[in-house]
Amino acid sequence: MPLYVKLHNLLKLNYEIVHSLPREYKYSLGEDIVKQNWKIIDLFTKAQSVENKATKINIINNINLRFESLKLRIRFLSELKLISFSKSGQLLEFTTEIGKMVGSWRKNV
Hints:
CATH topology: de novo design (two linked rop proteins)
Number of strands: 0
CATH class: Mainly Alpha
Number of helices: 4
Shape: elongated
Largest sheet: none
CATH architecture: Up-down Bundle
Oligomer: single chain
Number of domains: 1
């Protein structure tokens, strides 16, 4: 379950980042980032329990779409300079690894 571990670690990092955001971003952009991350984890859990190949592929595609949406929001945080360079680097590392893992999972279903 390396993908789950990566998603979980990304969620923890996102909570850290959201906690330190200015108030005007914490309850809008920050909250949305955390919700997107949770939704991806929920979809991952659902995909793990599905036997039907077509359904599983559909869920994985949904994970991929949500993940792209999450990356856009994270990138926006970085563009607004609301996160430090080191946090931005950590997020980039996590998102790159997770993206590769989801893509590989989709190909191997």
